[in-house]
Amino acid sequence: MMLSTQRSLATAQLGRNSFEEIFESRTPLREAALESFRRRNAVLDAIFYDIGKVTHEEARETAPWLAREGAILIVPPSGAGTLKLCNTVEDFANAGGANVRILAVAGVGSSALGAAAFARNVADAFGVAVAAVVSGYGLADLLTEALGGWFWFGTLNRLRHQFEELDDMSRALNRPETLSPPTSPLELGRISLDTRTVMALLSDGRFSFSLVTGHSKGNLVISEALYELKETPAVEETIPADKFWIVTVSAAVAMPPRYRKIIDVMGTIDGFGALNSTLGISIEKTCPFCWHHTNTDLPFHLPVTKVFRELRGERNVAV
């Protein structure tokens, strides 16, 4: 079964930028500096996510987007069609985003491949399409990772934001997909592009999510988006506190108190997830003998699809 994971990873890696494409890009130094890390992060996603559920064609489609932070994927259940890539919130709306009820954010390796795999697992549990925000990988991540930011993502995430302006400047030359929430009162400041995207989706009246879920560092992205919206009451008040369930997988991160429909899921042997969780948060659903990864090709995986199917019955989580 491991062949399915290897096949998806190989397809994505082969579809990455060639040296010629990097050289011809408008920011070749930036692209060259990040390319090896993007490829490495796709390998991480092959370990942590169920990328064997991403079809050969979808892996090829997402290859150039392995690190396109803030991109949105619309991922249908297995066998129900192929995923769609959206550059912006407007593209998402035009692609039928108003009909999507689940928002997912992956975060270990931070690639479109991992985001698609996590969303596919959730989609298979509910039988509906899932919107997935790509966490991405930029200069801010590269600089903080040198200090252990990937391993201690909760501790060093504030430092990451100190480099966001540098990231924005490097993207400005060739980033037509700049995302901003549709409501002008939001002051974005130094907020990462993935967080901005989640803020935009949750605060846009055209969309109505009933479930928001993240895995690992993706939970931190969701938390930051909700806390940033909290700083703008006029915007936050348009989002009913009981509008959606929040399900954190493999890292229990604090959310604003107004959101009470929260379920934290953790494997019983997931020391990595526990290390990056907020102290004092109780785990509502534990998964025996499960570690941090969700790849069903590997032992001790956390079975995302099975977990969400159980939550539908145990906690009446519905979309």
How would you describe the overall organization of this protein?
There is one protein chain. This protein is of the alpha/beta class and 319 residues long. It has 14 helices and eight strands. Strands 2-1-4-3-5-6-7-8 form an eight-stranded mixed beta sheet, sandwiched between helices. Helix 7 packs across helix 8 (153-162). The longest helix is centred in the first third of the chain and has 21 residues, at 28-48. It is globular, with a radius of gyration of 18 Å. The two termini are 31 Å apart. Residues 19-26, 146-150, 156-164 and 173-189 have low confidence and may be disordered.
Short description:
The protein has helices spanning 2-14, 19-24, 28-48, 56-62, 89-94, 112-126, 139-145, 153-162, 164-172, 193-203, 217-230, 233-236, 271-275, 304-314; strands spanning 72-75, 84-86, 102-105, 130-133, 211-215, 245-249, 262-267, 285-287. With 319 residues, the chain is α/β, with parallel strands linked by helices.
